[in-house]
Amino acid sequence: MQLNFLERLFITSRLRTFLHDHLETRRLLELGGPVPGARALEVGCGPGSGIELVFRKFGVASLDAFDLDSRMIFHARRRSRERSRLRFWVGNLRHIPVRDACYDAVFNFGAIHHVVDWRAAVSEIHRVLKPGGRFYCEEILSRYITHPVFGRLMDHPQVDRFDEAQFVAGLRRAGFTVHATRQMADLYLWVVATRTAQTVSTVQKQGGNDGN
Question: Taking the model in full, what pTM does it have?
Fold first, then answer.
């Protein structure tokens, strides 16, 4: 799904850039460390505020990035300083158009909670990671999404959202080994996981509804 006006206003703001730098990536680095020289992917990259941070803080060698909204890709292209090591496209998190096991690391800064069938999105991320590849994930939990005030302001799916235990269970079911988690006020979750040798998850076989 695409963002509403308030969400687009927030993710293109300086506050979002500040939080991305000083909170989100810092937490993920503490949990999983850098991945120097990695070929990486960012799912749901928005206006590109995380791209420079992934290069600078995690030390990746190259980065692919996509978003469902073509306007976000336009902004991300304009702000990027690493164009020779970047590839963009407009795309859906449930159908990533790359071969199996091609990335050393995948980064998600709050895109999965926008997907109706979020388990299928997790399964697709598992598919594109190499065995042993690292998944860095920051997510918003159901307590925030279904809040009587914030839930009305943000146009998120309201059915079948996840808390920490449910999200971790979804990762494990897809074939991930979860190494570390951190939660803030039962609203935000940071997770670092790696892909095991499993190649096709049960969720991927079952499929699901389009919803990114």
Answer: 0.85
